[in-house]
Amino acid sequence: MKKIEAIIRKSQFEEVTEALHEVGIDFFTYWDVTGVGNEKTSAVIYRATVYETRLIERRVISFVCRDKFVDAATEAIIKSARTGEMGDGKIFISTIDESVRIRTGEKGPESLYIKE
């Protein structure tokens, strides 16, 4: 089993969600985050409002899946999140040693909600 965490642009969230559903990833967690990027400018003034440009708003998507879904899920995220510009995001993949479904006590890959 693998845990996939993707940091993406908020504007690409719907596309990524649809792409993940198409490859069988129907359950994931997400949250809004703010980070600091490589940009050297710190503020932009637009219509008398100052916007902080070093602080980048993104969305993190996180889910655990069986090993056989990793490549398809990763490709789905890449294709749907890519704009071709700096700041498209990152994907992190890590190994999960164990999982347990609380309701039934099932352990391992059988505890994951993934359609076969």
List keywords for this structure.
two-stranded antiparallel sheet; alpha+beta; Alpha-Beta Plaits; four-stranded antiparallel sheet; 116 residues
Outline of the structure:
The chain is of the alpha+beta class. It has a single domain (about 1-110), classed as 2-Layer Sandwich (Alpha-Beta Plaits), CATH 3.30.70.120. Helices cover about 20% and strands about 35% of the residues.
Explain what you see.
The structure is a single chain. This protein is an alpha+beta fold. It has one domain: Alpha-Beta Plaits (2-Layer Sandwich), CATH 3.30.70.120. 19% of the residues lie in helices and 36% in strands. The strands form two sheets. It has a four-stranded antiparallel beta sheet with strand order 2-5-1-6, covered by helices on one side. Helix 1 (13-22) packs antiparallel against helix 2. The longest helix has 12 residues, at 70-81. The model has no long low-confidence stretch (mean pLDDT 88).
Secondary structure layout:
Elements: E1 2-9, H1 13-22, E2 29-36, E3 43-46, E4 49-52, E5 55-65, H2 70-81, E6 89-95
Antiparallel strand pairs: 1-5, 1-6, 2-5, 3-4
Helix pairs in contact: 1-2
